Amino acid sequence: MAPASRPAGLVKGGALFACVVAISLLHYLTPLRLGMLHDIFQRLYYIPIILAAYWFGFRGGIGCAILVTVAYAPHILFQWGGHIAMEMEKYLEVILYNVVGGITGFLSQQERCRREELERTAQGLEDSYRQLKTQSELIIRIEEQLRRAERLSALGELSAILAHEIRNPLASIRGTAEILMEQGVPAERRGEFLEILVKESDRLNRVVEDFLRMARPEPADKRECDINEELANMVTLLSAQAGSCGVSLDLSCGTLPRLVADPEKLRQAFLNIMLNAIQASPEGGAVQVATSFDREAGLVEIRFTDQGGGIAADAIAQIFEPFFTTKGNGTGLGLPITKKIVEGHGGSVAATSEPGRGATFKVLLPVNG
What we know:
By secondary structure, the chain is an alpha+beta fold. A hairpin with a 5-residue loop joins β6 (about 350-355) and β7 (about 360-365). It has a five-stranded mixed beta sheet with strand order 2-4-5-7-6, with helices on one face. Strands 1-3 form a two-stranded antiparallel sheet. The protein has nine helices and seven strands. It is rod-shaped and about 145 Å long. The two termini are about 65 Å apart. α3 packs antiparallel against α4 (about 85-180) and α6 (about 225-245) runs parallel beside α7. The longest helix has about 100 residues, at about 85-180. It has helices at about 5-30, 35-45, 45-80, 85-180, 185-215, 225-245, 265-280, 315, 335-345, and strands at about 225, 250, 260, 285-295, 300-305, 350-355, 360-365. About 65% of the residues lie in helices and about 10% in strands.
């Protein structure tokens, strides 16, 4: 027994002893002719026995039962002597006191052991939870640091690529300006050099605008829209440009539900893919645009297929990275912007290609996106 609980144990033990003595005195002081009262007093002994078993376990139950036996036995021997039937009944009751005390004490002790074991287990679980919580907080902090380092690394990489992309048109502009500053430049050549200045300035402006469009989050103006109608408008818009390249645009529309999306941004995404497809297709080729609806997955699928030379296997994994381009005059930001727009609508975009057999871009948009 712990020191803190020892005074409480002494108080309980004293109360049990006093209870047994009080019940015994009731037996000794009550005339035998009042047998009904003696029967009641006899049953009262179970109260301290059960309490002792509950409070002190097996030893407490047996100890209190023995105390009751010692206190009650003289009453049986000397006051009930000569009444053989009554004595046998009393002796059997004494045996029952010890049985009840032992069984109750044993069960109480087992229950106490289980409770202590559960408390130890609960304490262990609490310690483990506290340790896991500390570790999870540490992991979260480390992950946040890694994400911050990754963002800074990506920012540094993008800045280096952007600087490289800007340096080329700036070099052209500077070189052209230096030529114009020289004496003796024919007047007919000045118009040519000025045209170079305008083109390079436009290219520089396009690089910066595309970069800002990709890097800066824009508020989405989502509303119900018809994907088939938007694609039909894009086909009409690009038909003249495709015709000048000798490329035809074919649209095959499936039955689609209306989507809640930003139609302007989706038009921009579709425009980037379709322009790439037109530019990749040879003269006399066709760009096929097809839509379908996967009802089970709840996804609208848009496929853009060209008949160009295809995309090299090592380039497929890089075409959605900023500033990666296989075109001499491209900024390499069109497809990354497209990917950002589609993913902003909860969808995905992927490309498949076989060299010499064209490429297919598949856009998936969720109906509930």
